[in-house]
Specification:
Length: 97
């Protein structure tokens, strides 16, 4: 991954393993992903920005109080600050439950 995304990738990898130690790292379409029972739960990749996402095999959580039936499954980020790490940690924990 090109800079600065390679450093962000290392930090996201550590964050995922810290928040969902039951997930196992793997490659999925050539990019980092994390499996449970052989199924990909979450992944990250570099497009124009770094993208973190989870699949239909993750625990999909609808936004509390939402008046719609949309469930976010991917997020783009340009840097990994403290607030973003905290939110991403919560997303990983929810996806892995």
């Amino acid at each position: 991954m090109p800079m600065p995304y390679s450093e962000m990738g290392r930090r996201i990898h550590a964050l995922i393993l810290r928040n969902a130690p039951e997930l196992r790292p793997t490659l999925w379409y050539g990019m980092p992903a994390y499996r449970r029972d052989g199924k990909v739960i979450c992944f990250f990749r570099v497009d124009r920005y770094m993208t973190f996402g989870h699949t239909e095999d993750a625990n999909l959580v609808r936004e509390e109080g939402a008046r719609h039936n949309l469930v976010p499954t991917s997020w783009s980020l340009t840097e990994l600050d403290e607030a973003t790490e905290a939110e991403l940690s919560a997303i990983v924990r929810n996806a892995a439950t």
